[in-house]
Amino acid sequence: MTDPLPPCEVAWFSALCDDDYEYLGVPDPALRSSFEHCRAIALTAEAGGFDNLLLPSGYALGIDTLAFGAALAPSLKRMRLLAATRCGEMWPPQLARLLATLDRLLEGRLTVNIISSDLPGETLASAPRYARTMEVMSILRTLLNGEPVSHRGEFYNLELAPPRVTTVSGRAPLFYFGGLSPDAREAAAVGADVYLMWPDRLEVVRDIIADMSARAARHRRRLRFGYRVHVVVRETEAMAREAADRLLSRLDDAEGRAIRERSLDSGSVGVRRQAELRAAAAGDGFVEDNLWTGIGRARSGCGAAIVGDPDQVLVKLNAYRSLGIEAFILSGYPHAAEADLFARHVLPRLDHGPLN
From 108's CA, which of 35, 167, 249, 250 has a CA 20 to 30 Å away? Predict the structure, then answer.
C-alpha cells in the first residue's frame, strides 16, 4: 500500500497580458485583457475553489500586474494571488513597500512570482541579469521579513531600515521562480521558495527536481516544486481531443510565430525547450500520454496542455505529484470557461490547499 500524496496547491491564471482566446491566434475583443474581463476570470477561479491565481507580467500587452492585484484584492475572500514582478523594474525598497501593502489588502494572501527576463528596451546577458535577480530577492526577503538591509552588490548598495508597513505575517511571502539555464537554476537554488517548471516529459521533470534539490542542498536550503501547464478537460477523451483541435482550427502559422516572438523572454532556454518538446511530438501533437504540445504553436513560454477526461487528467496530475510537485498553475482557453470545467470535473478529487 503506497503512502497518500501530500496536499498540493492548485492555482489558475488570469490573462492580464492579452492571452485569452476561443481560437488560438484569433484575437477576440471580448477576451482582451481589461480589469472587467480579468476580474471575471479571478472570481470564477475563487468560486470554483482554486487556491491561488497567477497574475502574469507583460509590457507590450495587457494591463499592469500589481495595480490589477490591488484593485482586485477587496473582491477576494479566500483565494491567494501570485503576483509576477520583473526584477529591475522598480527600486527594491519601493517594491518591498508595495508588496507589503498588497499583502495587507489581501489579508495576508500574497505570493510573488519573481521574473528575471529582460526589461523593455534592455538586453542584458544571462549572468548579470540573474545576478541582479538574486540581489533583488535578497533585498526583498530581508525587508519583507521586517529586517534592516545592509547590501553591497553589483546593482544595489543599500543601508536601510524596513518600511513601516509590513506583511500581515511579518514575514516575506513565498517566492515562486522558474528558469532552465544554469544561471537561472543557481538563482532559484539561492533565493526562491518554489521552483516552477514548464511542461515536459515525466522523466525530464524527475531529473530537474533531482538537480534543483541538489543545488539547493549545497546552499543548505530546501526547494519546493511547482508545475505550470494548460488543461483541456472534457467528459470523454474524444471530446477533450476535439476541443484541443478546435483551439487550433483557425490558427495561421505566421500569426502563431508572431505571438511566440512577441514575448521579452522568447529566446530563453525554457522557451527553446518548449519548442524542442513540440518538435519531438507525434503527428497529433502528443509527446507522451495526455501531454499535448499543440498549444505552444501560438504561445511563448508554457507550451503544452494536459488533455483528457477527468480520470486521465487526475492521473496525470498525480503522476507529477508522485515526483514531488506540490503546486500547479493551470490555465485553459477561454480561461473562465476552462476554469469552471476543471473546477467541476477534477478539482474536488484533488487533496489541495495553499502552500504554507
Answer: 35
